[in-house]
């Protein structure tokens, strides 16, 4: 367990601001991460999950510092502020490993733009760690990268994260990336531009950006002749309704399908505007036709779903 008394004042404030949004926060130090944490650049240093309104943060013992702790707290903080989370409902098996890594990585990277900005706004000391991170990029073993003759989609996602997360210091490492992995860089830049050229500072816009990057990544896979993941179809990204939609029936906003997920009969609600899976709920006594006619506001009440208006 980490003792917050040793945190800086600014980190304590962030800890308290996050605490009020959840029932409990626990932060523990681990010496390795189990297989279920699909790391991105930052998440191999730490991870966070939310279970029954409790935030569980794990920090790797080598990365027990304010940069990583505040980073993980801010992931939870944004979800607590009703920014969309990302959920996969099926069972995990090896065949969907790529899907799981891509969903985690893309979601995290989109949020990282908000996280680094919030760390700066709160004047949390991150410079020392950032220097280290950028040094690590520049020390990457180039021979290791170049031996691959195919474009590596995992590396595309990694570069995408670096370009978004460290954008304000890109002049220190971007040239290196262009020289060492020009093909991956080109695709990563396309994804990064979606985040960097659009402003998003609320749940509605953030959801739009996640959906756009999901779609763009599938297009890149297609262009590379690789199997498409259909992230929009498999990963639930909660809907952010406009006020008028609350009093409108579900079928006006969503396509509703009955389906079986992990041996459970469920309804999938897919947003009509952007084809994004928005909710998966267990089938109750409501028939498909009753679901279609149900008002969105009632749906949230009946299924006990938290939402925020756009
Ligand atoms: Zn992160």
Low-confidence stretches: none
Q: What strand line-up does the widest sheet have?
A: 1-3-2
Mean pLDDT reading: 91
Terminal CA distance: 37 Å
C-alpha geometry: globular
Percentage of residues in DSSP E strands:
15-25%
Query: Main sheet, how many strands, which sense, barrel?
Result: 3 strands, mixed
The percentage helix is: 40-55%
Number of helices: 14
How are the SSEs placed, and which strands pair?
Blueprint: H1 9-19, E1 24-30, E2 46-51, E3 54-60, H2 66-80, E4 86-88, H3 97-121, H4 127-138, H5 142-146, H6 153-165, H7 174-180, H8 182-196, H9 203-223, H10 231-234, E5 235-237, H11 243-246, H12 250-253, E6 254-261, E7 264-271, E8 277-282, H13 288-293, H14 296-302
Helix pairs in contact: 1-2, 2-3, 3-6, 3-9, 6-8, 7-8, 8-9
The chain binds zinc ion.
Zinc ion binds at residues 42-43, 71, 75, 108, 112.
Task: Looking at this protein, list some descriptive labels.
binds zinc ion, three-stranded antiparallel sheet, 8 strands, three-stranded mixed sheet, alpha+beta
């Amino acid at each position: 367990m980490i003792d917050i008394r040793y945190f800086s004042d600014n980190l304590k404030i962030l800890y308290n601001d996050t605490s009020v949004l959840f029932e409990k926060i626990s932060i523990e130090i681990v010496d390795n991460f189990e297989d279920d944490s699909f790391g991105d650049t930052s998440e191999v240093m730490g991870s966070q999950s939310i279970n029954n309104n409790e935030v569980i943060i794990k920090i790797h013992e080598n990365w027990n510092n304010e940069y990583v702790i505040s980073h993980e707290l801010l992931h939870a903080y944004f979800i607590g502020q009703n920014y969309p989370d990302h959920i996969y409902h099926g069972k995990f098996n090896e065949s969907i490993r790529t899907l799981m890594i891509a969903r985690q990585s893309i979601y995290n990277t989109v949020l990282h733009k908000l996280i680094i900005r919030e760390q700066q706004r709160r004047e949390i000391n991150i410079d020392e760690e950032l220097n280290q991170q950028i040094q690590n990029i520049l020390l990457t073993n180039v021979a290791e990268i170049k031996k691959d003759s195919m474009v590596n989609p995992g590396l595309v996602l990694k570069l995408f994260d670096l370009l978004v997360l460290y954008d304000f210091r890109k002049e220190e490492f971007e040239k290196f990336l262009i020289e060492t992995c020009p093909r991956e860089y080109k695709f990563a830049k396309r994804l990064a531009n979606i985040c960097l050229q659009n402003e998003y500072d609320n749940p509605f816009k953030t959801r739009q950006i996640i959906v756009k990057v999901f779609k763009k990544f599938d297009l890149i896979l297609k262009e590379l002749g690789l199997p498409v993941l259909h992230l929009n179809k498999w990963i639930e990204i909660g809907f952010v309704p406009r006020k008028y939609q609350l009093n409108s029936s579900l079928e006006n906003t969503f396509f509703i399908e009955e389906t079986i997920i992990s041996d459970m009969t469920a309804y999938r609600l897919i947003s009509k505007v952007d084809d994004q899976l928005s909710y998966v709920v267990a089938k109750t006594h409501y028939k498909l036709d009753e679901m279609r006619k149900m008002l969105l506001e009632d749906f949230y009440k009946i299924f006990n779903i938290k939402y925020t208006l756009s």
